[in-house]
Amino acid sequence: MLPEFAASSASSLPLWLVRSGETGPDLPEAISPAAKVWATAQGFAGKSGQLCLLPTPNGEFAGALYGIGPKPGASDRPARERYKLAKAAETLPQGDWHIANAPDGFDLFQGALGWLFAQYRFTRYKKSEAPATQLVCPANVDADKLLALAAGEYLARDLINTPASDMGPDELEQAARDLASRHGAEITVITGQDLIAQNFPMIHAVGRAGAQAPRLIDIRFPGKGPLLTLVGKGVCFDTGGLDIKPPSSMGLMKKDMGGAANVLGLAETLCRLGQTSDMRLRVLIPAVENAIAGNAFRPGDVLTSRKGLTVEINNTDAEGRLVLADALALADEESPALLISMATLTGAARVALGPDLPPFFCDDDGLAAAIHAAGRDHADPVWRLPFWEPYETMIEPGIADLDNAPSGGFAGAITAALFLRRFTETARHYVHFDIYGWQPSAAPGRTKGGTGQGMRAILNALPEILK
């Protein structure tokens, strides 16, 4: 399904946004005295997420009041609920609704975006009722931009939610081809033994035991300007390899291609917004299964990367950085203005920051500040962690240039990021996102399952980054 707004019409019902206050809710003057009495009798206080339906004299709906909490102040903590209107989309009676007022300090754009996100349904395997409510896009709000953002998010969620039985390397390639076809992009795919011939040995080594052949997907979008290259981890299922995961850790491994899903979702949004004409956008996805078979790569193996650096394999479950390394080395050969990797890479990132706040790594303070601010301002929070150079020795084993899984368990997200940075020498800027790509339990605007992370933070920081 694609996101959509209701057509603007006189039949839509008004939704009044109401702030709470010390002396009671700030009820809009436009509603009738009877409606104000009704709201008071219902105990409506304007608290965030509180809903009060307004009846007509004959018992039909006249509209609704929806609480958005107190006016934000400079010292406020981040809101617990990311999308203020998403809960309204999920709790209002069936029908079309329009926002009847615009309280000071309320971001109608983000509110409408949350409403669209709340309408997402994954219906491939089980029928689901269409969203009961639709929103008329608020006046003076860019509907096309909202729909472009939601389309990218929907795409990322759909790809992550699809199990490996229907989202292996073959199907991930097809999703990339579909995107390229929609937007007039060129796509090339290097598959199987051709990876060896064209010097992508670690992508091949990780994926050669899979039921579907490993591959490197390369999409180039038409445009002129600075080169932006997005690299997404496309491990379509991760058993852990010969260092096999326990069942409790393997159950969600269909989401291990979340990095690929997010870069494809971001590319979808950029194309729909027409922003690819002002840059040269390239998307690289190493797509593999990390499986178990007689030809699987082994603990103790030493692999030689595309860059020529040798890597000692101390854990086959640290495979994502291996396939990313070959793709990053290819990307770096063009010296992009900005090189970004996105990957569901380490459990250490989740231990440090949890599932809802993905870390990113960046050497440039100005660029990092722009990404953090964009994430904060566009309901897509991210948090900077350091490329801590004193830990470089932890990824340097005795018999090879690099170690894919340092012993000890300390600073796992940082050592993984340091490993990847070794393959990015000529890019003007390199940023790595260690995302989770999964919503563990439903929240307003975020259904349980696959989710986008970091896409809007990147999108809204690009003008500052690429200027």
UniProtKB/TrEMBL annotation:
One of its GO terms (molecular function) is metalloaminopeptidase activity. The keyword Lipoprotein does not apply. The keyword Ion transport does not apply. Keywords: Aminopeptidase, Hydrolase, Manganese, Protease. GO terms for cellular component: cytoplasm. PROSITE patterns: CYTOSOL_AP. Gene3D superfamilies: Leucine Aminopeptidase, subunit E, domain 1, Zn peptidases. SUPFAM superfamilies: Zn-dependent exopeptidases. Residues 315-322 form the Cytosol aminopeptidase domain. GO terms for biological process: proteolysis. Belongs to the peptidase M17 family. This is Leucyl aminopeptidase family protein. It comes from Paracoccus aestuariivivens.
